[in-house]
Amino acid sequence: MSLIETVDLCQRRGDRDILKNINIRIKRGEVFALIGPTGSGKTTLLRLLDLIDTPDRGQLYFDGTDVTESARLRLEARRRMAFVLQKPVVFNTTVYDNITYGLRWRGMSRSDIRIRVDRVLEMVGLTTDRKRNARTLSGGEVQMVAIARAIATEPEVLLLDEPTANLDPVSTARIENLIVSIIERHDTTIVMATHDLSQGQRLADRAGMLLDGEILQTGDWREVFNAPRSRKIADFVGVENILNGVIASNEDRVVTVDVGGNPVEALSDLPVGEEVSACIRAEEVTLALSRLSSSARNSFTGRITRVVATGPTARIEVDCGFTLAALVTRRSAEEMALEKGKSVYATFKATAVHIIRRESTGLEGGPTAGSSVE
């Protein structure tokens, strides 16, 4: 049974739907990431899960009980959860006293408070700062205090809203390490909202893709990255090659997609004549200076139109009759002398192509970078 479950949860603000028919299930002990851009409704959903706000429609089940309407049940459930805001508030007192607030509200004795807070201070690395005024701390340290205050109550559910937003890389790494420590030491169910895909992938077991107030897909990271269910999700998770075309043939699930006169082979159950988008991640495209002897069904000759080197990798754009982006190591790019104007062979497997029905993916806005123009 799920610890948290929402059924058709909706929230309006004025005449606008902020959240629409949210249906998610989160298991006990799971780390679940709500992934979406700014303004997609992540904070609103966290506030509903924490029972701060009441949904306009739908139900929220906590540990199998519908807590949507009952004030008593909502209070009981809230006592089992803790919420760390994106911009946490600290009180104008010491770090130690800030962490004790939730424990004192629960009526814990001074000696038990001291034991627990000492343990939490050690866990978050703030033991030597226990007597500092919390408002003199850096942004990363304030976030540490906020998380420490939350976990001191030993919640069953920890809700984190963009836990590293606006922090420097060192502070971000400290916060992420702390979250990993919480995951390893405690059987805490964590729901975290973030727009950072890589952070979600590092910390979470599963993800819910929240875009424009709707959960468009939930699943593990392999599924979300390699099999996005819509064009919106494919764009958001960084699928650079989204090629518009029509299925020209289907033989035992091996389809040929006509992309502006260029045949792209893939695996799909969709019928001939279906308008689709073929999605290929840039890292699945192999570049070579001569034709490879390979089992890959898709091989195109093209000319490099752009090279962008970033850190250890290089992004190469190739005009193959359609634009195809490839991601290679910087060393490989240098060894092959890949530069604008050079002819190359671009190859990818049929199994690397994910097919999406075009009429259900909201393509009315037209092609984006990496898409063919019809």
Structure, described:
- The two termini are 48 Å apart.
- The longest helix is centred in the middle third of the chain and has 17 residues.
- Strand 12 and strand 13 form a beta hairpin.
- The strands form four sheets. A six-stranded mixed sheet has the order 6-7-8-3-9-10, with helices on both faces. Strands 13-12-11-14-20 form a five-stranded antiparallel sheet.
- The chain is built from ten helices and 20 strands.
- By secondary structure, the chain is α+β, with helices and mostly antiparallel strands.
- The C terminus is likely disordered.
- Helix 4 crosses helix 5 and helix 5 runs parallel beside helix 6.
Could you give a short description of this structure?
The chain has 374 residues and is an alpha+beta fold. Helix content is 26%, strand content 35%. It has a 6-stranded mixed sheet with strand order 6-7-8-3-9-10, sandwiched between helices.
